[in-house]
Every structure is written in structure tokens, then in C-alpha cells.
């Protein structure tokens, strides 16, 4: 029996990844108007090529750097680009063949293993960029506002360890439905799987956990970046430091702001939509077993907005590098001073860290 033929009142739907929407209703029209294989293929190729190009530029830049702070920041950027690239590659390898072949999902994947894998990938590769953005913002916050509270800057090895922790945490989050908390179900128009917006206790908990964690990451990035930008602006307008600027700090903050703005625009509509839908359905207490068509369409729109995050992220680094920024604003030139950024340093230390002493 195909999943489109399942009776909506059948309680067995709660144990499968099928039946959240009725794909037999206007299936052919939906496929021709929404699920264009050429659009999906072009969209995926642009994203993959953008991330590959950004990764090559990052690797080339990392070999020329002597600044440990900048090197660790590039490690986080590499982790972000690799995550975006793998996210596009994994999801496209399932979704694009579906658009061309139009296979019956229930026949190909009756045990929902493929659906669970795709749902896990959507959650894992979706949550990672948000957490990495917050991690990068936090690292720059402490680097700018408390530069000497740590004995040394974050090393490359430690930076990769932090990236690994973010990947591990996101992996555990994505495995929760497989372990029994919530479900991954096939979504409209039948080409992808994601968390389930139904009033089941497990689904509600997992949806709120995913959405609220994402919202928290975005807000944390906003707070950290705002304070860091205010600090940089205050210091750069200091008369004593106007001649000695830390252009690398500006470069990193511009890139962080770009990443944060893109994540906010692409992700916040979906995250807020998930929270709103879940809270609205709480009184239903599991009586609703199929998502309304309007909800299905809105979820698809928001997911497509999220996909743009993986395509635009690499261009933040490609376009907002110091070499590009100096062409736009020639006043940004490398300066040798270190101490001038931090007015809290005592006078004796600032005398030791003069341009002449740094160049010796």
C-alpha cells in the first residue's frame, strides 16, 4: 500500500515517516510547478562551487598568515564552509535524483531509513552553521574585549577541537528522533524529510529544542558582535590610536557581521514559524495527524530560504577579505601596532608595544 493511500485515521501513521501530508492530491501538478529538477540542480551546483571556491581561498590565505588570532578565525571559517559544502552535497544527492526519477518513496524506503538520514542531515547541517556563528562571535568578543585574559590566543588545534565539539553536539541533536524523541517525516511536495510539526509530545519537544537552540545561537551572535563592534568603534576614534589600526580585527568583524546577517535573514523566519506552529497546536493533544496544506507550503518556502544560507556564507569571506575591502576603502592599510587597539593597557605596557619595538 502506498503512503498516499493511507487512511488519515489510521494510527499506524504515527510509527512511520509517511502520512504527514496527502501527496495524492494534485501530485503531478505539484511536481511540475514546484519541484523542478533543473532548478534544484542549478541551485545545488552554484552552492557547491561557491563553497569549493571559498575553501580554496581560505586554504591559500591560511598558509600566508603569521597571526595566531587570524589563523584560528580561519579555522572556524573553514569549518563553516566545509559544513555548508557537505550539507548541500548530502541533501542534493537525495533530493535531486528524486526530482528526476520521481520514485515512490514508500516503495524505495519502506523502513524510513533514507528519510531518517535526510531528516538528520537537514537538522545537523542546519544547526551547525548557527552554532559555529555563535562560537566565532564569542571567540572574537573575548579576543577584542579581553585580549590578555588568556595567556595565548586560541591555537589551530584547539580551534579545530571546538569545531569538532560543535559537530558532535549537532550530531547528537540530529540523532534524537532516531533515539525516540520526535520523528522525521516526509514533507511536501514529497522530496525531503524534516522534523514533524504535529501535536505529539515527542515532536513538540524536539521541534522546540531545535528552534529555540537556533534562535538562541542567533541572538548570542548578535549580542557578541554588537559589543565587539562598539569596542572597535570606540577604540578607532581614540586620538592616540587613530594612526595605528588593527585592520585584521576589522576584517574579521565585517565577515562575522555578514555571516550573522545572512543567518538571521535565512533562519529566523523558519525558527519562529516552527515555534509558532508548535505552540498553536498544543491544545490539539495529538488529534491532528496531517499538516494543513497552507502549513506545508509555508514550511517549504522557509526551508528554501534556509538553503540560501549555505550558498551565501562562502561569499561573505570571498567578498569581504582585506584585499577586497582595501579596494573599496583605500584607507584600510596594515599597521604594525598591537597595543593601540586596547586603551585599557597601562602606560608602561603601551610604551613597550610601540611600532618601532614591534618591527625590531
UniProtKB/TrEMBL annotation:
TM annotation in the entry? 38-61, 73-98, 118-138, 159-182, 202-235, 256-279, 299-320
Give the main localization category.
membrane
One of the GO BP terms on file: positive regulation of cytosolic calcium ion concentration
Membrane topology for this entry?
A: Multi-pass membrane protein
Q: What positions does the domain G-protein coupled receptors family 1 profile occupy?
A: 50-317
**SUPFAM superfamilies from the UniProt entry:** Family A G protein-coupled receptor-like
How is this protein annotated for GO cellular component? Answer: nuclear speck; plasma membrane
Establish whether keyword Cell membrane is in the entry.
yes
Gene Ontology MF term list? thromboxane receptor activity
Name its cellular compartments. Cell membrane
Transmembrane is among the record's keywords: yes
Its domain of life reads: Eukaryota
Q: Keywords for this entry? A: Cell membrane, Disulfide bond, G-protein coupled receptor, Glycoprotein, Membrane, Phosphoprotein, Receptor, Transducer, Transmembrane, Transmembrane helix
UniProt cross-references to PANTHER family, sorted A to Z? G-PROTEIN COUPLED RECEPTOR FAMILY 1 MEMBER, THROMBOXANE A2 RECEPTOR
Protein name stated in the entry: Thromboxane A2 receptor
The species this protein was found in: Strigops habroptila
Taxonomy-wise, where does this protein's organism fall, top ranks first?
Eukaryota, Metazoa, Chordata, Craniata, Vertebrata
Amino acid at each position: 500500500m502506498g503512503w498516499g493511500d493511507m487512511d488519515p485515521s489510521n494510527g499506524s501513521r504515527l510509527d512511520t515517516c509517511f502520512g504527514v501530508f496527502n501527496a495524492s492530491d494534485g501530485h503531478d501538478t505539484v511536481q511540475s510547478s514546484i519541484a523542478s529538477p533543473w532548478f534544484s540542480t542549478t541551485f545545488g551546483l552554484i552552492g557547491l562551487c561557491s563553497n569549493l571556491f571559498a575553501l580554496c581561498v581560505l586554504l591559500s590565505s591560511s598558509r600566508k598568515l603569521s597571526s595566531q588570532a587570524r589563523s584560528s578565525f580561519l579555522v572556524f571559517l573553514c569549518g563553516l564552509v566545509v559544513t555548508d559544502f557537505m550539507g548541500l552535497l548530502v541533501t542534493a544527492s537525495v533530493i535531486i535524483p528524486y526530482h528526476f526519477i520521481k520514485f515512490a518513496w514508500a516503495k524505495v524506503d519502506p523502513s524510513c531509513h533514507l528519510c531518517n538520514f535526510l531528516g538528520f542531515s537537514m537538522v545537523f547541517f542546519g544547526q551547525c552553521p548557527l552554532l559555529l556563528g555563535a562560537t566565532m562571535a564569542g571567540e572574537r568578543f573575548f579576543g577584542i574585549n579581553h585580549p590578555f585574559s588568556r595567556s595565548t590566543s586560541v591555537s589551530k588545534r584547539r580551534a579545530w577541537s571546538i569545531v569538532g565539539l560543535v559537530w558532535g553536539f549537532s550530531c547528537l541533536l540530529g540523532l534524537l528522533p532516531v533515539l525516540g524523541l520526535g520523528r522525521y517525516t516526509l514533507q511536501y511536495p514529497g522530496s525531503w524529510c524534516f522534523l514533524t510539526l504535529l501535536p505529539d509530545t515527542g515532536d513538540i519537544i524536539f521541534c522546540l529544542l531545535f528552534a529555540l537552540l537556533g534562535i538562541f545561537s542567533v541572538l548570542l551572535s548578535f549580542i557578541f558582535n554588537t559589543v565587539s563592534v562598539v569596542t572597535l568603534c570606540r577604540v578607532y576614534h581614540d586620538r592616540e590610536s587613530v594612526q595605528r589600526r588593527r585592520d585584521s580585527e576589522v576584517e574579521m568583524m565585517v565577515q562575522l557581521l555578514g555571516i550573522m546577517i545572512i543567518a538571521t535573514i535565512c533562519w529566523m523566519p523558519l525558527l519562529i514559524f516552527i515555534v509558532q506552529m508548535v505552540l498553536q497546536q498544543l491544545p490539539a493533544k495529538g488529534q491532528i495527524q496531517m499538516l494543513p496544506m497552507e502549513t506545508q507550503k509555508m514550511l517549504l518556502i522557509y526551508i528554501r530560504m534556509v538553503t540560501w544560507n549555505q550558498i551565501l556564507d562562502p561569499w561573505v569571506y570571498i567578498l569581504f577579505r582585506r584585499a577586497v575591502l582595501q579596494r573599496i576603502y583605500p584607507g584600510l592599510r596594515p599597521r604594525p601596532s598591537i597595543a593601540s587597539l586596547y586603551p585599557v593597557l597601562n602606560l608602561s605596557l603601551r610604551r613597550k608595544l610601540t611600532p618601532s619595538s614591534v618591527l625590531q
